[in-house]
Structures are given as structure tokens and as C-alpha cells.
Amino acid sequence: MVKTFRQYEEDIVRCNRCGFCEEVCPTYKVTGEEFSLARGRNRLMRQSMEGHFDLTKEQEINHHIYSCLLCGACVVTCPSSVITDTLVKAARAEITRANGNPFPIRMALHGVLARQRRLTLGAKALRFYQRSGARWLARHTGFLGLLGSLGKAEGLLPDIPARTLRERLPEVLKKPLKPRHKVAYFAGCMMNNFFPQVAESTLRVFQENDIEVVVPVSNCCGIPHEAYGETEMHVKLAKENLDSFKRFNVEAVVTDCASCAHGLHYYAELLKDDPQYGPLAQEFAAKVKEASQYLAEVGFKKEMGPVNATVTYHDPCHAVRGLKVKDEPRQILKSIPGVKFVEMNESDWCCGGAGSYNVTHYDLSQRILARKMENFKKTGAQYLATSCPACLMQLAHGLDVHRLPARAIHVMQLLDQAYQNRSVKSGARAV
Q: How many Cα atoms within 13 Å fall on the side-chain side of residue 170?
């Protein structure tokens, strides 16, 4: 069973208020508020455990619990190893059990993300909104202003493609003549519906490297549900995905979404006490790999054409701290001929995307993003690479808002372009 908030008392009392988290907390850096910091949040949660107030009834206090990015930076810095991100998620689960989530969030988690087909219908409706003139009307009539944070966040949406990845699969999936490996690709919600072009690049890269890919039916990995304390739905989605993937005999389960990879890997912990699904979850989680991580392990072809551009890299929180994946994407980028790789200051700081955080906390999210954009500007790079679609969306929005002449791009897209550019002698660039 998943531990309840009250069962973490031994963990929370380890916080000795030393302040090491001050130096790495993105929300504290932009607000300067004590309760926007791990130390402050831990104090609030401890006081609730000690009976000073009821966490489930204090909306003003809960603001600080929900303003956490769950980036995990405080956890790796804490000399006492306080698992603040886990404590915050447990506190949110406690609040959700008592009060439920607000209707829009509940609708998104249970009505849309719970089923891939519903999300696809929603994405197609958004495409109609973008292409029909409704977007122009919404932006020029002041309607978006009436929607508050949701209206502000409308600009985050990428151009929704006409077809999802699953609709393109018959054209994209090709079995290599002599496959040396076989993997299952987890098509996450965003990759399937919002960034199928990135997923296509990933599949082409794997097939180029003689890796056979199968794409099982899947639902949301459950990361959003965990973040909002929807434990029962999180468990339900995990079991459905495990049932789907167990039918395939593969050596790895790969995904080009760092958040999905982290979420899938967590199934082992989530279901460890389940007599039926526990062993299956352990076996499954051991196979989960982020795309660059898997390619670095099995090896990838170095015969590429040039991509003449300066590139830097943003580390998604779920990759660098959740999966400990840091060197692998850089290894890939540095292997591409023509790429001048420049390290970005604070590359592993959260960009402020954090799933739906940039929607529910748009203004705070943009203040955090501004710091990332300043660091990016100093690199002089033309490409801001990453390996998470939520980060990709946030970073692209930042480049647009800050009017920077650069492009946010996935690592697999650059590698895919390098393979396609093999026949080009010079001047090749990513598109």
C-alpha cells in the first residue's frame, strides 16, 4: 500500500532547518517567501502532523503545498536526506482524499487523461480552435482575459498536428532487416497527441540503429495523477499499462518523455505490496529506459551528416534527478558532426513547466522560466535541446515570449536529422 501522509512523520522531523535548500529552490528564488521553500513547507506539514491545524481545511496554507514544482532539487541538496517532494505529494493526497480536486482538475485527470482516446478528441478540438479563427477571436475580444490563468496559458499550446502518432504508425514502423534488439515504445499523452513529429524521430532513430520497435496500447503514465494526490486513479492506470505491455517479449520499455520514464519506473514502488501486480511491476520497471539512456547503453551509429549549429541542453527534472540521466543526452549531442555544444548555466534547474504547473501557476511559472531564458541567452545557442515534451512546450513558449531567435528541440530530433543528413556534404541543419 502507498504510505499515507501521517506515516511520514519520521521523515519530516529530519528537517533541521539548515537552509541548504535556499540555494536551489526555484520558487524561493523568485518569491523570497519562507513557505515557498522546502524548509518552510516541511514546517507547515510538521505542524499539521502535530495537530496545530488541519491541513485539509487550510486553503491559504495549502497554497504553499501546491506551489511546489516537485522538481526534487531540495532533496538532492539536503544533508539530512529529507524527501520533501514525496512529503508534498503525500500531503496533496491527504487533501484530495478529504476534499477532492477542483472540478477542472478532476475533469482533466478522470475525464481526459484517464483515456488516451478522450485526450485525442480533446487535442483535435484544440486544433479546430487554432485553425478555425476561434483563436483569433479569443485573443482579440478579451475572452481569454476572462479565463484567468487558463487564458494566460493559452499561448503555451504548440500547433496541434492533424494526426496523432498512432494514426501515423503504419507509415512509420518498419522492422529492420537484421534487428539486434527489440523494445516497446511507450507513447505518452503529449508525444502521441501534441508532439508526434518528435515521436516519429525517435522511432526512426531506433530503427536506424537496427532496433525493432513495437508500440503497445497505453494510457497516461499516471504522473499527473500522482502530483494531484489521485492515488486510486494512479494505481488503476499503472495496472492497465502493465497489462498492456506484458503481452510483448521485449528487452526494454523506452520512451522519449523523461516524465513518463520516471513515472513508469515508479510502478515498482507504487505496487510493491500488490500480490498480483507487484512482481510484474518490478520486472517492468527494471526495463524502463529514457531514449537517450537506452541508446547510450546499447550503442548507436556514429555515421551521421552534419547539423551545423550551436546547441545547449536543458535537463528535465524527472531525468536528471528522477532517473539520474545527465550525461547520455549530452553524449548524443556531442557526437553529431557540426554541433557545437555549449553548457548552459543552471541547466538542471526546473524551467517552470512541471506538467500542468505552467497552467495552474502561470505567473509564477513565467518568473521561473525567465531565469532559464537569461541563462540560455548567454550560451548564444540556436537550439535549446531537451528530452521532455512538457519542458519542450515551456521552453518554446519562453523563446517566443522573450523574442529569442532560437528553437526548442528534442534530442531525438537532432539525432534523426543527423542521420538524414548523411548524404549532405555541408551546410546541413536541423529542420
A: 2
Single-letter code of the amino acid located at 169: L
The structure's pTM equals 0.92
* Contact call for residues 319 and 290 (beta carbons, < 8 A): yes
Grid cell locating 233: 486513479
* Angular region, 109: left φ>0, alpha ψ -120 to 50, beta rest: alpha
**Packed helices 291-298 and 411-420: angle between N→C axes, nearest 10 degrees:** 50
Per-residue pLDDT tens digits for 151-188: 566 677 888 898 999 999 999 999 988 999 999 999 99
Lowest mean pLDDT among 59-73, 139-153, 323-337, 381-395: 139-153
Q: 343: which DSSP letter? A: P
User: Average model confidence (pLDDT) for the chain?
Assistant: 90
Distance CA 106, CA 77 (A): 33
What's the N-to-C CA distance of the chain in angstroms? Answer: 47
**Residue 352 to residues 27, 93, 365, 370, 421, Cα–Cα distance (Å):** 9, 22, 5, 9, 34
pLDDT of residue 79: 93
Among the listed residues 295, 289, 242, 304, the one whose alpha carbon sits nearest the alpha carbon of residue 270: 242
For residue 249, count CB atoms less than 10 angstroms from its CB and return exposed for 0-12, middle for 13-18, buried for 19 or more.
exposed
Amino acid at 319: A
The span from the CA of 135 to the CA of 128, in Å, is 9
For residue 9, the model assigns a pLDDT of 86
What is the arrangement of strands in the sheet containing 288-290, beginning at the earlier edge strand?
211-214, 181-185, 252-255, 288-290
